[in-house]
Design goal:
There is one protein chain. By secondary structure, this protein is an alpha+beta fold. It is 29% helix and 18% strand. The strands form three sheets. The chain has a two-stranded antiparallel sheet with strand order 1-4.
């Protein structure tokens, strides 16, 4: 139990430091994963936190806007159906995932954190970066990812290389 608490704090600090230092594409906000239902229901006030970790008092998303994206670090799970049976597919590799307002994966070629063609040169660079947090007991870690996602978004949405 104590290690789980340490891991939660360590992951939070690593993610905040990474985004504060390396994500430049657009404004961003934080939220606790326990508030995921509020986020998908588009309830942001008091749920989102700004760069200074202060709760937002005005919604940063206009009512009805579904163009925002959500980033999370972890394993990507995707609901699939085969032979009329539902199951989840995913990856054992934890990475930064970018999803839409319904927490559904953005399709390629949109920047979504996916590995598009196996182990690519880009993925090697991301995976070989410093692991900025690693649990002493569990398979919990954070790899610095914000800069790569910011770069990919700039390339795709703004044509900046």
């Amino acid at each position: 139990m104590e290690q789980s608490k340490k891991d939660a704090v360590g992951m939070q600090k690593a993610i905040i430091k990474d985004f504060a230092s390396n994500f430049t594409y657009c404004n961003f906000y934080y939220y606790y994963d326990t508030m995921q239902q509020a986020i998908t229901a588009q309830h942001f006030v008091g749920v989102l936190y700004d760069k200074n970790l202060q709760p937002v008092t005005q919604t940063p998303v206009q009512e009805g806007d579904t163009s925002y994206q959500i980033a999370y670090f972890g394993r990507y799970l995707q609901a699939s159906v085969q032979n009329d049976e539902a199951y989840n597919t995913g990856s054992n590799i934890q990475r930064m995932n970018i999803v839409n307002y319904q927490l559904k994966r953005l399709p390629d070629p949109l920047p979504n954190g996916s590995i598009r063609t196996g182990i690519t040169e880009v993925w090697r660079k991301v995976f070989n970066r410093d692991i900025t947090y690693k649990s002493k007991l569990f398979d919990v870690y954070y790899i610095r990812s914000a800069e790569n996602i910011s770069t990919e978004m700039n390339k795709y949405y703004r044509g900046i290389k």
